[in-house]
Fold this sequence. Notes:
Blueprint: E1 2-4, H1 8-19, E2 28-30, H2 32-42, E3 46-49, H3 58-66, E4 73-78, H4 83-91, E5 96-99, H5 107-115, E6 120-121, H6 127-133, H7 139-143, H8 150-159, H9 165-172, H10 176-190, H11 195-214
Parallel strand pairs: 1-2, 1-3, 3-4, 4-5, 5-6
Amino acid sequence: MVVVDDEVLVRAGCRLALAGDPDLEVVAAVDGHEALPTITTSRPDVVLLELRLSTRDGWELLTDIVSMDDPPAVAVLTSAGSREHVGRALSAGASGFLDKGSDPRRLPALVRSVAAGGVVLSPAASRRIVEHHLGCADEAAVRRLTSLTCRERQVLAHLATGASNVQIGAALHLSRGTVKDHVSAILAKLGVASRLEAALVADRGRRSRRDAVAA
């Protein structure tokens, strides 16, 4: 894992919060200027990224990271937690949005979830806020649900619960690589950029079907 933040104390705090977990290793904690070369060289599974950087545009850096071949999962860790920031970060491909005011004791579990392919949000980044600001749960995306295969719909149903790739694989008796391929196909067919957006489309589809039956 790589921690990206311009503040030395924040980087040290993240190292300390994660040091007690034997399954997690912080291979580097760097500022924005050093981030991309470090990530390219070390190839971490997860990046904790502060968006408000003085040494580099954080949004541009997020785009560069998620555009890499086989990119790491990126969890935004910031105090800039406005609704607009949440929606923009997730739409750009971030796998989570964490507030720096969150309990540091929860950080290892959240990082493990992101590393396993899950999506994590701080309490402040509520589902209602995300759904309001993401343009993913529109009718066009919902109509594209019909293009999914039976297996892709099964994967999406589990993905919508927040399950990681490992958890989905265990439930459906699929390898992690196969689940990853299905998730990629689902995102492409629905025309969305992130797992959370796909989950919101699935939720909108369920509500639409329920409303149709009730009518």
